[in-house]
Specification:
Order of helices and strands: EHEEEEEEEEHEEHEEEEHHHHHHHHHHH
Mean pLDDT: 93
Number of helices: 14
Structural class: alpha+beta
Number of strands: 15
Strand content: 15-25%
Bound molecules: adenosine-5'-diphosphate, magnesium ion
Radius of gyration: 31 Å
Largest sheet: 8 strands, mixed
Distance between the termini: 81 Å
Shape: elongated
Length: 476
């Protein structure tokens, strides 16, 4: 059999942050208590009409801009008709004709290499209610009904589970950078439909695609793809490829396999038509210009900036851009004039270690970039050693006082030239034998003199100044 190339396309759903739901005034908030965030519209009570949440539209447009999509001249919504108990209206309001954006293009990083990704479209829709099934009963919670959901559809442009995973992680970071969603997979805020097929290596013709619905974790997406590649490849090997039908399946976490749900229903069966209760929304240029201003520099751009213009390693730059607030903190350090590598070291080791241990966020950190600069300045000025700086770092955070308040007179490094000179003169006078041997070529005796100074000052002599003076004295 010819070598098989996996082909994967993703439909990624992400719940957006907002005060109220996308078409009603009910709160968009997770609650342990079922059915407490529900407006009449969410229950499809007669006489209710949808009102579009402007913030959700703007957030969706921002995502569309960030993905370099072509934006529509106007937006409209469509009805996708189907019956299910989690959908009391009997249709879902979504977008089909004029979505928030089409034909997007972005780059992601996979194993250190850039890969182009083509986006088919991004559209805004409403989430359905959630059902829980028990032994002989099912319950329904309408809190999720009407939660804004952004669906992003990619072209079939991934060739492995690794690439698909890198894309989902990349998008999760973008949603967080744009602050349109917490994109928390643990809270079920990201769910994917995973489309998988295989094709012969030397052919452009795509194979039959299988759609696995509602995979709700990133690990699940990876497992689904790998399972489907193996299943389809095996059928092809055995000459039973005709058994791969275009069906809709689900990922069974326990059994670790995909299970057939139904044969694929075509779009026509949803009897899409324009939602008559929502007027069309014109997308003015000035509106888009305003939204563009709210889009921050995204993580990949910042990462390459740090690598190419500030000499950071790929690894360190990757850590700094993982969270926007950390990257912002780092950039504030740069703007205060701190050396990029020094700042990066402090942030990725001391600061992030502290944040992890204390389970706090950088925005709440008492050690602001300004205070970090104070601390690093003191090292550079030779007032304290790096070791002392690390101790002071924790004292500042514990006691929430300015850096300089922790410098005790007795801990200060001795940088005073005259004072060091007199100590060094004394040591040279007391060590005629070492001086002679040094001048006869035993230059490693230099360290002996440094050691003597440190001993004499209990380690507080500024090493840089000390070495300068010793060299000057011995060489003259
Ligand atoms: P539908 O609306 O029926 O779900 P689409 O044509 O919109 O179908 O495709 C949905 C997803 O399937 C897209 O993410 C697309 O990239 C992916 N896809 C289409 N053809 C294939 C294929 N042969 N193999 C893998 N994925 C595919
Ligand atoms: Mg689909």
């Amino acid at each position: 059999m010819k070598k098989q190339i996996p082909v994967i396309g993703l439909e990624m759903h992400c719940e957006l942050k907002s005060n109220s739901k996308v078409f009603s005034r009910a709160k968009n908030e997770y609650s342990e208590l079922p059915n407490c965030n529900v407006a009449p519209l969410d229950l499809a009570l007669p006489g209710t009409l949808p009102v579009v949440n402007k913030k959700c539209v703007e957030d969706a447009l921002k995502v569309s801009l960030a993905l370099n999509c072509t934006l529509p001249d106007y937006i409209c919504f469509d009805r996708k008709n189907y019956y299910y108990p989690d959908l009391p209206k009997g249709y879902q309001i979504t977008q089909m004709e004029k979505p928030m954006g089409v034909n997007g293009k972005i780059q992601i990083e996979v194993d250190g290499k850039l890969k182009d990704i083509d986006i088919h479209d991004v559209h805004l829709e409403e989430d359905a209610a959630s059902l829980d099934h028990y032994f002989d009963t099912s319950t329904i919670d309408y809190n999720r009904c009407g939660v804004p959901l952004l669906e992003l559809v990619t072209e079939p442009c991934f060739n492995s589970a690794r690439e698909a995973l890198a894309f989902l992680e990349h998008m999760r970071d973008i949603y967080k950078y744009l602050d349109v969603s917490d994109a928390d997979t643990k809270k079920g805020q990201i769910r994917c439909d995973v489309n998988v097929s295989i094709r012969d290596e030397d052919s452009d013709i795509l194979g039959t695609r299988v759609e696995v619905k509602n995979v709700n974790s990133l690990a699940g997406v990876v497992d689904t793809i790998n399972y489907e590649i193996a299943r389809q490849t095996k059928l092809k090997e055995e000459g039973r490829y005709n058994e791969v039908e275009q069906d809709t399946r689900r990922w069974d976490e326990e059994a670790q396999k995909t299970i057939h749900m139904r044969s694929k229903v075509d779009a026509i069966d949803y009897k899409y038509f324009g939602e008559p209760n929502i007027p069309m929304i014109r997308v003015k240029d000035s509106w888009i210009e305003d939204l563009k201003k709210e889009i921050p520099r995204l993580h990949l751009e910042r990462k390459y900036d740090y690598i190419n213009n500030y000499g950071l390693s790929n690894y360190d730059a990757g850590i700094l851009v993982k969270e926007k607030k950390i990257a912002d903190y780092f950039e504030e350090c740069l703007s205060l004039g701190l050396d990029a590598k020094v700042a990066s070291n402090w942030i990725t080791t001391q600061i992030m270690g502290y944040l992890n241990k204390e389970e706090t966020e950088i925005k709440d950190l008492y050690l602001t970039p300004k205070r970090l600069k104070d601390l690093i300045d003191l090292i550079n000025e030779g007032v304290i050693s790096s070791k002392q700086a690390k101790e002071i770092f924790f004292q500042v955070l514990d006691e929430k006082k300015e850096v300089r308040e922790f410098i005790k007179e007795e801990d200060k490094q001795i940088s005073d030239k005259e004072k060091l000179e007199s100590i060094i003169d004394m040591i040279i006078k007391d060590s005629p034998k070492q001086v002679e041997e040094y001048h006869n070529g035993r230059t490693n005796l230099f360290d002996y003199f440094v050691g003597q100074v440190m001993k004499n000052t209990k380690g507080k002599a500024n090493p840089v100044v000390t070495k300068e003076i010793i060299k000057e004295k011995l060489d003259n």
